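Handout, section B. The chain below has 86 residues.
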Amino acid sequence: MAIPAQAEKPDISWGGELFAENCSECHMVPHDDEWFKARADAGNMADLDSLRTRVQGCANNFNLPWFDEEVDAVTAWMNQEYYGFD
């Protein structure tokens, strides 16, 4: 029996680029890099799955033509930079 290939890890640097291009205008206040950390404690962002769901929801709401790879990359970047759910 063949062992399934391990899923590729999201490209975190690409996620940061996607965030900067598509999300930062609404989600970042100048000189306030604590914004996402504060939101992590809001009760509705409990884990990595809820973060991914939120990223997918924003992509849908703003009609971004993102595939799972883009959503995963942005989720991974946000998690690394602000949440630390892993």
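Note. Residues 1-6 have pLDDT under 50 and may be disordered. Compare this with the example in section A.
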